Amino acid sequence: MSWFTWTDLWMLAPVVIMVTGALITLLVGAMARGAAAGTGMTFLGIGTSVLAAFVTAFAWSHGGAAVGGALLTGPFAVFLGLVILAGVALALLYSDGYAHRMGFDVGEYYGLILLAGAGMLYLVAANDLITLLIAFEIMSLSVYALVAADRRRRAASEGAMKYFVLGAFASGILLYGMALLYGATGTIYLSDMAGVQAAPMLKLIGIGLMLIGLAFKVGAVPFHAWVPDAYQGAPASVTGFMAVAVKAAAFGILVRVLLASGLLGWHASETATGASTLATEHMLLTNVLVVLAIATMVVGNFLALAQNDLKRLLAYSGISHTGYVLIGLVAAMVLPAEGVTAVLYYLAAYTAMTIGAFAVLVVLATGSRDLGPIEDLAGLARRRPAVALAMTVCLVSLVGMPPTVGFFGKLWLFRAGLDAGFPGLVILAAVSTMVSIYYYLRPVLVMYAAAPGEAASHRPVPTAGTVVLAAAALATLLIGVAGPTLYDAARASAEALLSLG
Amino acid sequence: MADLPILSLLLVLPLVGAVAVMLCPRDRDDLTRATALTFAMLTTLLSLPLFWLYDAQAGTMQFTEFHPWVASLGIAYSVGVDGISLLLVLMTTLLAPVGVLCSWRAIEERTREFFASFLVLVSAVIGVFIARDLVLFYVFWEVMLVPMFLIIVIWGGRRRLYAGVKFFIYTMTASLLMLVAIVYVYLAAGAGSFDIETIRLALVEHGLSRTAELWLFVAFTLAFAVKVPVFPFHTWLPDAHTEAPTAGSVMLAAVLLKMGTYGLIRIAIPLFPQAAATAAPVMIVLAVIGIIYGALMALAQTDWKRLIAYSSVSHLGFIVLAIFAWNETALTGAVYQMLGHGLSTGALFLVIGSVYERTHTREIDAYGGVAKVIPGTAVVFMFAMLSSVGLPGLNGFVGEFMILAGTFLEAQVAAACAALGVIFGAAYLLTLYQKTMLGPLKHERNRTLTDLTAREWSYYVPLIAFMVLLGVFPQPFVDVMRVSLRLLASKATTL
Question: Nearest CB to B69: which of A415, A433, A484?
Fold first, then answer.
C-alpha cells in the first residue's frame, strides 16, 4: 500500500485550496496596494472559499477515514465545513472597502482569514491528535493576528495580546490532555479511542483537559476572560468572523472528542462489563458539562446587561449563546443524535444571525472608526430603515423569537435537553433568555425611538456589506420558516457521525 | 369553494398588504393609506363567508389545512376553526379596517412602517386563533409582539418607551416558560405530534403525574394570564393601552387580550383538566379581585384613556371568572363577552382617539359639556359606554348576564362579588360620561371642536350596528358556537 494516494489528495483538496488561496492573496498583497487591490482580493478569496465549499461537499460527503487516518470525513465534517466556509465568504465580502478604509494591510488581512478558514476546515475533519493540534494552531494563530489587524489602535493590540497569552495557555492544556489521552488509550486516532479498554482516570483527565482547551476557544465560563477584550479590540469584521467560525470549528471538534471518550450516549443497561466505572465517568463528565452550561448562560446574560459598547455587548451575547449550545452537548451525553443535531443546527443558526449583526457594525463604521456605544445607532430607522430592519431581525433572532432561525435553534436545544432529562437546565435557559430580552431590545429601541445621531448620517453604505447584511437577515428569517431542510441535514450529519464513530 | 384554503389566505393577505404598503413611494401617504385600507377590507370580505359556510351543527374544527412542517418531529402547519375561534377571527378581521381608518389622520409620520406593522399584527393575531399545532401557535403568539412593540414605541404617547418595553418584557418573559412547557408536554404525551387535540387525547390515555400536570398548567396559564391580564400581572396594561396610538389601543383591548382568554379555554384547561380544577379557586379569587380592583382604579383615574384601560382589567376579570366556572352557560357568556368587550372597549378607545386628535389632551378635566358642541361624538360615546356598562339591548348585557348566571351555579359568592363590579362599572363610566359630555360647557376653547367626519362615521356606524345586533339578536352568534362549546366543556370539569 502506497502511503499517499490520489484519493488522499482529493480528501485534502478543500484545505489545500484554502491554503493556496491564502498564499496567493499574501503574494498579491505584497505587490498591489489600494482599494482596487482590496476588492480584487475579496473576490479572489470568495472564489477560493466557494470552490473549497464545492470540493468539500463532493469529496467529504462519502465519509470514512482518509490520509492514513488523519482525517475523518463525512456529513458531519461537510455540515460544519460549509457553515465555516459560509462564515469565511461572508466575512470576506463585507470586508470589501472596510479593510481598506480601516487601513489594514489587505494582503495579510485576507490571507489570514483564508488561512484561519483552512485551519478550521482541517479541524472539523481531524481524526488524529497531531492533525487536531496542527489545525487548531493554524486557526488560532491566524485569528490572534487578525485581532491585531488594526495596528494603530492600542485596544486592538491589547485584545490580541490577551487573547494570545491566554490562548497559548489553553493550547498547552489541550496538548497536555492529548498526551494523557494517548497514554491512556495507546492510540492517537479519535475514532479508535472509544473502543479501547483504557485506564479510566487517566482517560477522563485527558478528556477533561482537552475540554478545557476547547471551552476556552468557544468562550465558555470560566474560560471566557479574553472574550470581551478581544471582541471589543478587534475590528468589527474580525469579531464577526471569529464569533461564528471559531465557535463552529471548536464545537465541532469538541463533539468529536466527547464521542472519542466513549461516554456519549452511554447507558447503564447496554454494557454489563465495567458498568460501575463507566457510570461514574459518564456522570462526572455530564456534570462538568452541566456546570459549564449553567455558568456560561448565567454569566454571559447577566454581564451583557451592563454593557454599553456594541461589540462588547455582542461579545457577552456570544458567551451566552455558547451556554445554550452546551445544553446540546449535555443532552448528547444521554441522547447523542438529538443533542448533536441541536448543536449543529444552532451553530448554523448562530452564524446567520451573528454575521448579520456584525455586518451592520461593518457597514456603519465611519471613517476608520467602528461604532462604539449603543447610542451610535440612534435614529437609524429614520435614516436607513432597511439596515435597521435587518439589524432588528438579527437581534430578534438572537433573543430566539419566532419565526426566525434562532427560535428553531432554541426549540431543538430545549427539546433535546428535556428529552435527555434535564428540565432544570432548560428552564434556566428560558430564564436566561428572559434576561437577554432586555439587552437585545436596547439597540432596537435606540434605532427606532431615539432621535438620529451622528452615525446615522447620510453617507452611502458600502454595497458589499449591504449584500452580506441582506443575505444574513433573509437567511435568519427564512431558514426557520422554509421548513425542515436544515434540521434534516443536521440530523443526518449527526447520525452519520455517530454510526461512523 | 370548499377547496379554497380560506384560512391560509386570511393569514397571507395582510402580509401581502404589508409588503405592498412598504413598496408605496415614501412621499405618497394617501396611496399608502389606501393600499392598507384595501388589503384590510379584502381580509374582512374574505373572512365573512366563513360565518355561513361553517357547519355549526357539527361544531368541529373546519376549513382545516394540514401540511407537515418538520415531519420528523411532528410539527405541522395545521390550521382550522371551530365555532369559538371562528367568531374571534371574524372580530379580528372586522376591526382591521377600523384600525386603518382611525389612523388615517392620527399617523402622520412613517406612515408606511405604521400600516405595515399593523397588517403584520393582524395576520399574526389571526394565526393565533386558527393554529392547531402548539409550535405554530407559539410562533404566531410571539410574532405578534414585535409589530405591537414598534407601534407603541414609535407612534405612542409621551411615555411610549417605558410602556413599550414594559409590554414586551412582561409578555415575552411569561411566554418563554410556555415554550419549555410546550416541548415538555410534547415529550410527555409521546404522541410524536404537536397537534393540540392529539396531545390531549394522549394525555387522557396515560395521564401525567399530578405535580407535572400542575407545573405545566402553571407555565401555560402564566403566559395567558399576563396577556389577559389576570390581577397581579396586569400592570403592563394601563401603560401600554394608554400610550399606544388609537389603532394600537383598539387592537390591544379588542383582540390581543382575547388571545390570553382563548389560550386558557383552548389549551391550558383542556390539556390539564385536573390541574385546572385544583387551581380554579385561586383563579376565581384572582378574577374577582381583578374585577373589583380594576373598577376601583378606573374610578380614581383623571386620564380618560387610562380609565378605559383599567375598565378592561375589570371586564376581563368577568371572562376569566366564567372560564373557570366552566359550564356551558358561563363559557358561552365568556366567549360572547370576548366579542362584546372587543366591540365596546374598542369603540371607547376610538372615541377618545377621535377627541384626542382634535384637542391633544386626555385629561378628563379638559372636557365638560362638550356634547353640545360635538353631538355626534356624544351619541357614539353613549352607545359604547352603555354597551360597556351592560345596558339591556346592547351586547354587554347578554355576555355579562350569561357569565353571572353560569358562574352563580358554581360559585355563588364569587358571582355575587362580581355583580358588584357591574355596579362599579356603571359608576365609573357614567361619571366619565357626565364629566366630559354633560352639563354646561366648561372650557371656551372647546367651543370650536369639530364633530365626527364621514371617515369616522364609516367605522362607528358598523360598530354600533353590531352592538345592537349582538344585544337584541344574540341567537345566530350563540348558535355558531353552541356545539363547539359543548364539545369543549366536555373536555374538563373545572370546579
Answer: A484
